[in-house]
Amino acid sequence: VGSERPVIVGTNDGTLVAMLLAATHPERCGSLVLFAPTAKHELEGGPSVESVEDVVTLINEGGDASGIEWLAPSREGDDAFDKRLLKLQRNSVRRGAMGHYYRQTMLADVQDVIPRLACPTLVLNRSDNRVVPMEHSKDVAARIEGAKLVELPGEDHLMFSQGIDRIADEIEEFLTGTRTGKDPDRLLTTLLFTDIVDSTMRAAEWGDRRWRDLLDQHHTLVRAQLERYGGREVSTTGDGFFASFASPTQAVRCALDVTEAVEPLGVQIRAGVHTGEVEVRGDDLGGLAVHIASRVSSAAGAGEVLVSSTVKDLLAGATVTFDDRGEHELKGVPGSWRLFRAAP
Fold first, then answer.
1. Contact (CB, 8 A) for 224 and 263
2. What is the pLDDT of residues 69-80, one digit of tens each?
3. Pick from 224, 270, 232: nearest CA to 251
4. For 326, left (φ over 0), alpha (ψ -120 to 50), or beta?
5. Fewer CB within 10 Å, N- or C-terminus of the chain?
6. Contact (CB, 8 A) for 114 and 19
């Protein structure tokens, strides 16, 4: 991408490679950020080859455990996070190679490399990390001239599972000298609402058991498309979904594909998409933009994906067409809103 001296960020086992890169190619490394680094596992003597091989055997025998109790103990009991972590692991390294990489990491030793690091370096770790204790990272920082050490509260070994905002702030300040101080409670995002048309009538016609089976299939199809397009499920209410997306393109394409995917079930959905600033309330989102997106969805007909003029303007030139549906009064929302029907 044309970056001649990028900042190298290494996390966990990746810190070994990051340090090697910075030491062997100093002209290519502008700065170095290391999360939970260690020069060698177990400062005194390192793990024995026998103990490593015992663990490698267990890994190669398979199993569906993600190791969350060691990697991210703060997230124990969070089944959704555990499931995503296991999927990340499976997608990162094929099962047959996991033992090899574990052995390689545990027996690695970069102690002789560390004194050669000359670029500005930030070292971070959490106080109660059980995989790489804080003492290991302190040792790394002490060997790098001018390195900045930050000890964070917590126990997780994974950088992204606990207190990630604080980590991002520390990295930003180290690299730029300032923190932006963004309001973490507000976010610009694209919102999608969907629901099944005439769901009450369908439920009465089909009966509870058949309707429940259909909802299960519907939910599976919708969630598959959300995952495909990077959507985050905010909430589910009966036959409807509320989700957020990083971009309007992803949201509109997801809505179009969901509309098509549920047709074989014998039902149709309506969908509404709007982009705006929302209030972050834990895992929930609120604010006027949420109300607008919900009202846009309510204005859609069977099998339709309606979008606000904001979304239409943002997607100028995209491979989506828009039919003008005129001005609408959205209940509880000030002013009139021009809506458009999206189509591939």
1. no
2. 888 999 888 888
3. 232
4. left
5. N
6. yes
Mean pLDDT of 175-187: 76
Instruction: Say how many residues make up the chain.
Output: 344
Q: Sorting pLDDT into bands at 50, 70 and 90, what band is 255?
A: very high
Position 62 scores a pLDDT of 62
Share of the chain above pLDDT 90, in %: 59
Query: 200: number of CA atoms within 13 Å, CB side?
Result: 0
Q: Which residue has the tokens 């267990």?
A: 58
Yes or no: say if 159 and 12 are a contact pair by the CB < 8 Å rule.
yes
**Residues 246, 93, 223, 282, CA torsion sign:** negative
Burial 79-118 (b: 16+ CB within 10 A, else e): eebbeebeeeeeeeeeeeebbeebbeebebebeebbeebe
Supply the DSSP string of 126-173, one letter for each residue: ETT-SSS-HHHHHHHHHHSTT-EEEEESS--SSGGGS-HHHHHHHHHH
Model confidence band, residue 43 (pLDDT cutoffs 50, 70, 90):
very low
Amino acid at 177: G
Task: Quickly tell me which residue has 């005439």 as its tokens.
Answer: 198
The rounded distance, in Å, linking the Cα atoms of 59 and 171 is 34
- Region 304-320: mean pLDDT is 90
pTM given for the model? 0.55
Contact 325, 306 (CB under 8 A): yes
Strand partners, 222: none
Residue 131: band (very low, low, confident or very high) from pLDDT cuts 50, 70, 90:
confident
CA angle, corner 220, sides to 83 and 216, nearest 5?
A: 115
- Per the listing, tokens 């458009």 go with 340
Rounded Cα–Cα distance for residues 196 and 71 (Å): 40
Look at residue 243 and tell me whether its pLDDT is greater than 90. yes
- 215's tokens: 């909802």
